Amino acid sequence: MSSKLWTFLAALAFACVFVLGGQASASAQGRGRGGGGGGGMGRGPVGGGPPAGVGVERGIGRSSDASAGRADAGRGNASDRSGGRSDAGLERARLREENSRRADEDLREHPGTTALLHTTANDLREGYQSALAVNPNLKFGQYVAATRLAANLGAAHPNVTREAILAGLARGDSIGETLRDLGLGKDEAKTAERRAEREIKESRRRS
């Protein structure tokens, strides 16, 4: 074969290799871009996965819901407890107001009570108001009886004071029980209580 023919075939082969090499490079670049895009799509929303942040937000939502449930329960319990205290406070205020109003009516209808207790209507009213702040259930008649009993028994029993009797009533004891706790015998306490009741009734009749 002539040298010219060999030269032509060599040039042709080189050209084929060059063309094929360029196509392979282009194909590889295309696959690289396509693979990158495919990988991105696989990780992104189009590939079927959740959008960025959705999983986190969903977790936060569930956590928030769970926390809100506990928080709501806590607020509910706190509200209930607070409401209980508030209701009790309102009831105490209502009792104080009602008993105070009845005491004013009693003083207007029976002014002789103040003379029996050697005091004035204002002083008696103020003392009763102070006692109501401690024991809203205290009746005006009980306050008057405690005041009279202390006056009658104080000389023989110095520990029998109006404050001591009122403290017993605030604990839920009766006047008789309180007098016995203060050292009086059963019969002595009953006699003292009956005497005070009789004196109070007489003062009311004279009003």
Tell me briefly what this model is.
The chain has 207 residues and is mostly helical. The protein has helices at residues 3-43, 54-109, 112-116, 121-134, 140-153, 162-170, 175-181, 186-206.
Euclidean distance between termini CA atoms = 158 Å
Query: What is the overall pLDDT average?
Result: 77
What structural class is derived from the secondary structure elements? mainly alpha
Our estimate of the beta-strand percent is: under 5%
Shape field:
elongated
Let me know the number of strands. Answer: 0
Q: Biggest sheet, in brief?
A: none
Tally of alpha and pi helices: 8
Question: What string gives the helices and strands in order?
Answer: HHHHHHHH
Low-confidence parts lasting 5 or more residues at pLDDT below 50?
Answer: 32-61
- In percent, how helical is the residue content? over 70%
| CA gyration radius, whole angstroms | 49 Å
